[in-house]
Every structure is written in structure tokens, then in C-alpha cells.
Design a protein that fits this description.
The chain folds into three domains: 78 residues, Orthogonal Bundle (Fumarase C, Chain B, domain 1); 218 residues, Fumarase C, Chain A, domain 2; 61 residues, Fumarase/aspartase (C-terminal domain) (Ribonucleotide Reductase Protein R1, domain 1, Orthogonal Bundle). By secondary structure, the protein is mainly alpha-helical. Helix 9 packs parallel to helix 11. The chain is built from 19 helices and six strands.
Length: 430
């Protein structure tokens, strides 16, 4: 269970301070493993643990000369520790530290995102309950289809976010691995037990096999999950944008007191946060594509992945955290206009009952083709004349050959379309 009150904020997770602090944690875990195996004196380990520290300013200063961030880091740590620093990084290669540390940081970021997703699921569940029976127009191709309820939309989104929660937990598991196997993964200057002990202390699983790096299919899967979450958030934001159109006007994203929508038009209330979410989703998807490119490296490794990961992993996790928080705010404070939803259903002049009419005629023994012809003809006449479909049918001789006035009237009951909503909600445990 994630303790949401002790989780660090995403910006802290990706800070320079946290990066080097995690590198130091990894180095000390290796030292503890070596001490357990008798390769480092207990007194030396105590000094390493008590004296180890770093200065970001000093690391940057050293790196200007050595042009290697891990060496600059180790040099600075040695300045704090003294002679016992010779035991630090023993048998390791830079990727042992950098990749294992990255796993820890990505795991921390995953925990924040999982918390955000859980919060969003709760809000969607509450909104689904609240608007379970709020009838609205269902649309396909942007055109009126059949009536549904607003609660169904929220329930649909809730289940998708539950799948995203499962995906994110799986991604966390996939990335929760460490590597202490040396230059090309052969443990040439290491005992595999170092990896076993160090990973256990860090709460990581040892990578079953690696070369010089933890394999990047893991990172690609993680980034793919972020892209899927971004796509889900975009889907929800896009729907709100569509329903906020003046011609529809069924919902609005919250508009704060004192907020202004346009420098030129004082009447404007625009879905700017939803538009922002849709735009940011494009970046997260693009970053996922870069992570796929990082899977293939030369031989036992190159560092073409390294420069990109310094951008795409922090950016995507920070963006998803931001997008989820914004969508929690929007859905929790969404402005809903039930009366406008009813008006929009009525705008169709009964055309949305066409399938029920079709089925009623087939129940009378007509072929589907003949039934379709009768209903479509009446529907086209309704469109052309602006008369309600029910009135057209009541005056049509062809339809009345098979359906009485009472039967025709009964077929235009909106509750028919909503009669199974409760069963759907029961199935979803809402």
C-alpha cells in the first residue's frame, strides 16, 4: 500500500540532489555487500557510511575537467571520505550505479503516478454514481445515436483508469531491477552475491542477466504505459471539449471567479485545461517512441540512450503527474447542465428511436429490409419537414398497417434505453 502522505513530490524525485543522493545510496549498498563478503573492513564501511557526502557545485566543477559525471561524483565523494574511499565503486562500472539508481527513481515516480491514478479513479466513481441516471444523447460520428446517461461515460473512464492502474503497477515491477554485474555483465571483478545483497537492501530485484546496462525494453514498457495513460487523459479531455461546444453545451470545465477567457471577447469560457492536456499527451507519446529507439544499442552497450533518457523519463513522469492532477480537478469540479442534455435529446425530433421502431416492425413479421425502408423513409421526411418522427409515423399509412397508434406512442419512451443501466453499474461494482 502506497503511503500518499510520505511520497515525495515529482519535482523532488527528479532533482539533482535526489539523483546524486540515490547514486550514493547505490554505492553504499555495494559497499555493504562487500563488507558482508569480507572484502571491506567493518571499520572502513562505518567511515564510508558516516562520511560520504557530495556537493553538486563541486561535482560540476570536477566534471568540467574529467568530462564524466560518475567519475566527477566519485572524486567528490572521495574528498569527504578520505582513504577508505578506495573501497567505493569496487568492481563496478558506471552503468551499475546510473542504471540501478534510475530504477529507484523511476520506481519512486511510478508510486506518485499510481497514487494520482487512484485519486482519479475515486473521483470518476463518485461522478458515475452522481450522474448514473442523468439522460443524455449518445453520439457516434458526432451525430445523435441513442440515449445513454452521463454516468455511463464516467463509469467507462473509471474502468479504463483501473486498467491504467494495473499497467502502471506492472511497469513499476518491470523497472524495479538493479544491476551490479560489471563492465559487460560478466561479474569479472564482482561476486554475484554483491548484486544479490545490494539489490535486496535497495528493495530491487537483481536483473537475471544484463550486459553493461539494464535492458531498455524495460524502460520502453514503462514509457509505453505513460503514453497509454496520456492517451486516456486526452480521450477524456477531448470529450469534455466536445461537450462544451456552444452548440452542445452539456458540460463545462470549471471557470474560476476572476478568470478571463479571451483578451478580445469578454463572453468567452474556453476549455483551456482540457486543451492543454490534449497537447501534452502528444509529448508523452513522442517520448515513448524515443524509448523504443533506445532498446537497440551497439554490442554490449553504447550511450545513445543516456542523453535521451535524461529528458524523456523526467519529462513524461512529470507531465503525467501534472495531467492527472489537472484532470482530477476538472472532473471533480465539472459543471454539468442536465436540462441542456434533455434539450439536445429533444432536438433529434425522435429520430434516435429509429432502431426500436425497426425492431418492432420485424417483430410483426416484416423483413429487416422492409422494416428499414419504412423507418428510414419516415426519418428522412422528419428531417426534411422538421416534424417529430412519431407524428410522421402516426400519419403514415404504411407504418400503421403493422403498428397501432398505442404501439407507436409506446415506442418513444426514453426509459427503454436506460433500463439496463443498473445492471451495468452492478457489473462494475459501482
Amino acid at each position: 500500500m502506497i503511503d500518499r502522505y510520505t511520497l515525495p513530490k515529482m519535482k523532488e524525485i527528479w532533482s539533482e540532489e535526489h539523483k546524486f543522493r540515490t547514486w550514493l545510496e547505490v554505492e553504499i549498498a555495494a559497499c555493504e555487500a562487500w563488507e558482508k563478503l569480507g572484502k571491506i573492513p567493518a571499520a572502513a564501511l562505518r567511515k564510508i557510511k558516516s562520511k560520504s557526502n557530495f556537493s553538486i557545485r563541486r561535482i560540476n566543477e570536477i566534471e568540467k575537467t574529467v568530462d564524466h559525471d560518475v567519475i566527477a561524483f566519485l572524486t567528490n565523494v572521495a574528498e569527504y571520505v578520505g582513504a577508505e574511499s578506495r573501497f567505493i565503486h569496487m568492481g563496478l562500472t558506471s552503468s551499475d550505479v546510473v542504471d540501478t539508481s534510475l530504477s529507484l527513481v523511476m520506481r519512486d515516480a511510478a508510486d506518485v503516478i499510481i497514487r494520482d491514478v487512484e485519486d482519479f479513479i475515486k473521483i470518476l466513481r463518485n461522478m458515475a454514481k452522481k450522474y448514473k441516471e442523468a439522460a443524455m444523447m449518445g453520439r457516434t460520428h458526432g451525430v445523435h445515436a441513442e440515449p445513454m446517461t452521463l454516468g455511463l461515460k464516467f463509469a467507462l473512464w473509471m474502468k479504463e483508469m483501473e486498467r491504467n492502474s494495473a499497467r502502471m503497477n506492472q511497469a513499476r515491477s518491470i523497472i524495479n531491477v538493479g544491476k551490479f554485474s560489471g563492465a559487460v555483465g560478466t561479474y569479472s571483478n564482482l561476486d554475484p552475491k554483491v548484486e544479490e545483497f545490494a539489490c535486496k537492501n535497495l528493495g530491487l530485484n537483481p536483473a537475471p542477466i544484463s550486459n553493461q546496462v539494464i535492458q531498455r525494453d524495460r524502460h520502453a514498457e514503462y514509457m509505453s504505459v505513460l503514453a497509454i495513460i496520456a492517451a486516456s487523459l486526452e480521450k477524456i479531455a477531448l470529450e469534455i471539449r466536445g461537450l462544451q461546444k456552444t452548440e452542445i453545451g452539456e458540460v463545462e470545465e470549471p471557470f474560476k471567479k476572476g478568470q478571463k477567457g479571451s483578451s478580445a471577447m469578454p463572453h468567452k469560457k474556453n476549455p483551456i485545461i482540457c486543451e492543454r492536456v490534449c497537447g501534452l499527451a502528444r509529448i508523452v507519446r513522442a517520448n515513448a517512441m524515443v524509448s523504443f529507439e533506445n532498446v537497440a544499442l551497439w554490442h554490449e552497450r553504447d550511450i545513445s540512450h543516456s542523453s535521451t533518457e535524461r529528458l524523456i523519463v523526467p519529462d513524461s513522469t512529470i507531465l503525467i503527474d501534472y495531467m492527472l492532477q489537472k484532470m482530477c480537478y476538472i472532473i471533480d469540479n465539472l459543471v454539468v447542465y442536465p436540462e441542456k442534455m434533455k434539450q439536445n435529446i429533444d432536438k433529434s425530433l425522435g429520430l434516435v428511436f429509429s432502431q426500436r421502431l425497426l425492431l418492432a416492425l420485424t417483430d410483426k413479421g416484416l423483413s429487416r429490409e422492409k422494416s428499414y425502408q419504412i423507418v428510414q423513409g419516415a426519418a428522412m421526411k422528419s428531417r426534411a419537414t422538421g416534424k417529430h418522427l412519431k407524428d410522421i409515423l402516426l400519419s403514415e399509412k404504411e407504418a400503421k398497417k403493422y403498428l397501432s397508434d398505442a404501439e407507436i406512442n409506446s415506442l418513444f419512451d426514453i426509459n427503454y434505453y436506460l433500463r439496463n443501466i443498473g445492471k451495468i453499474f452492478d457489473r462494475l461494482n459501482i
